[in-house]
Design brief:
Order of helices and strands: HEEHHHHHEEEEE
CATH architecture of one domain: Roll
CATH class of one domain: Alpha Beta
Low-confidence stretches: 23-70
Oligomer: single chain
Radius of gyration: 40 Å
Mean pLDDT: 78
CATH topology of one domain: Nuclear Transport Factor 2, Chain: A
Strand content: 25-35%
Shape: elongated
Number of strands: 7
Largest sheet: 5 strands, antiparallel
Structural class: alpha+beta
Helix content: 25-40%
Length: 239
């Protein structure tokens, strides 16, 4: 029995040595299929698109963004061409406004003022207080609101249709308190307007006659505000 035990012991020891030598020949060697070690910082430099799995470069840091070339400021005579006469008080006022707000564009302003003028006249005729509130200062809105309320009390309605705006001219411009731009525009328009009583009878104006109308409105905007909209702060009938 002891001899049998010794034989098996020798066999198992020999097998263990053989296995150990085989493992040693393999451990510690690269096969060429190993994954590279994960770099946690490399993931911050790119974002992968799930659809294509392609690398999408992130935008450059602010310091790396190329600076935009500075455009030369045109002289006043060129800047306000077709808007104001060179050397006039209007041109001087516009210069002050653009000095505080370099993005101000007088021609763009006139286009917006024409649109606002038509919207306000139409909204007033239709009694649209919500539209008026967004375009008028508080004081001017209160005046329009009172007129609409009086019209409603008498059960009168107004029909207004614009034919055209013949002219829109800046007659005054200034920068007040260093932050409030104020511009006055004279509008000459053609429209058809009629006021009817509760029975539908025309009591003022005409339902088919084109009338020439002149209005002088003043717009204002706080250039320190993020709100880009101008509001009407004064209205009067022009000559």
């Amino acid at each position: 029995m002891p001899d049998v035990f010794d034989i098996y012991t020798i066999i198992f020891l020999a097998l263990a040595v053989f296995i150990f030598l085989r493992l040693r020949s393999v451990l510690g060697q690269r096969t060429g299929r190993e994954r590279p070690p994960y770099d946690p910082y490399s993931a911050r430099d790119a974002v992968r698109s799930p659809a294509t799995d392609k690398v999408v470069a992130l935008p450059p840091r602010p310091a790396e963004t190329p600076a935009r070339p500075v455009e030369a400021t045109p002289p006043s005579a060129e800047r306000w061409k077709d808007v104001a006469e060179s050397g006039s008080t209007v041109a001087t006022g516009l210069d002050a406004i653009v000095g505080a707000d370099p993005n101000f564009d007088a021609k763009h302003f006139i286009t917006g003022a024409r649109t606002a003028y038509e919207m306000i006249v139409t909204a007033f005729a239709g009694g649209d207080r919500r539209q008026l509130r967004s375009l008028l200062s508080r004081e001017v809105f209160d005046g329009f609101d009172a007129a609409i309320s009086e019209r409603e009390r008498r059960s009168e309605t107004v029909e207004t249709r614009f034919v055209s705006i013949e002219a829109s001219t800046i007659t005054a411009a200034e920068l007040r308190n260093r932050s409030t731009a104020q511009i006055t525009v004279r509008f000459v328009s053609k429209l058809v307007s009629a006021t009817r009583d509760r029975a539908g009878t025309v009591i003022d104006g005409s339902a088919d006659k084109v009338t020439d109308v002149t209005d002088v409105w003043t717009f204002a905007r706080d250039i320190a505000s993020r709100d880009p909209n101008w509001k009407v702060v004064a209205t009067e009938a022009g000559q």
